[in-house]
Amino acid sequence: MHRLQWQIAVLTLVVVTSLGAVRAQTTVQARVDALVTFSEKDNQAALAAMKTLGESLGPTTAYPERRHYLDALVSMQVDAAQVDAAQASVTELREWATRYQDEVGRLQAETHAAELLTLSGQTSAAATQLEALTPRVTATRNANVQWHFYRALGNAQLTLGRFEAALDSTFKAMPLAKEISP
């Protein structure tokens, strides 16, 4: 009988420890991805949860997770028409990317900055800024960065009436969207 109690105790300890490990594996990236999905249904609520998540990021948060958080936050702020907040988040993303000498983060920030120019009616400046980024974006070989870039470039080109260029950018973005989507 004593042996059975000991085995039950060990089994209980293993189960509890395993559950703790599963909870610990819930990364910032996974939580951000869940909030991005939720934002498609209720952007305001998802944005509020995203801000709460941001407040919980401490100095030990890995830079790639912080970058992923800021990239998603900017998109959600733009969707909520919080342009000033989005600009502040772009600045923060740019600062982190510079601190870590991260080209992916820099390109995310610069693409978001160009999108904000487009939203503020400075589409020609946005298109010029994006076109100048093309060699750097291509060199990253990062599907997410490239998809976001070509989508932003295509939107700017379309707004400027450059229909063939916009179509070309859209065609470049399409296979990348399939690559980054589950």
Q: Give the count of helical stretches.
A: 9
Question: How confident overall, as mean pLDDT?
Answer: 88
Give the CA-CA distance, first to last residue. Answer: 50 Å
Give Rg in angstroms.
21 Å
Which series of helices and strands comes N to C? HHHHHHHHH
Residue runs with pLDDT of under 50 for 5 or more positions: 9-25
Beta strand count: 0
Strand content: under 5%
Structural class by sheet pairing and helices: mainly alpha
Description:
By secondary structure, this protein is mainly alpha-helical. The protein is globular. α4 (63-79) packs antiparallel against α5 (83-99) and α7 (123-140) packs antiparallel against α8. The chain starts with a helix and ends with a helix. The protein has helices at residues 2-24, 28-39, 43-56, 63-79, 83-99, 103-119, 123-140, 143-159, 163-180.
Q: Quick gist of this model?
A:
The protein is mostly helical and 182 residues long. The chain is built from 9 helices and no strands. The model is unreliable at 9-25 (pLDDT under 50).
Architecture blueprint of SSEs:
Blueprint: H1 2-24, H2 28-39, H3 43-56, H4 63-79, H5 83-99, H6 103-119, H7 123-140, H8 143-159, H9 163-180
Helix pairs in contact: 2-3, 2-4, 3-4, 4-5, 4-6, 5-6, 6-7, 6-8, 7-8, 8-9
Structure keywords:
182 residues; mainly alpha; 84% helix
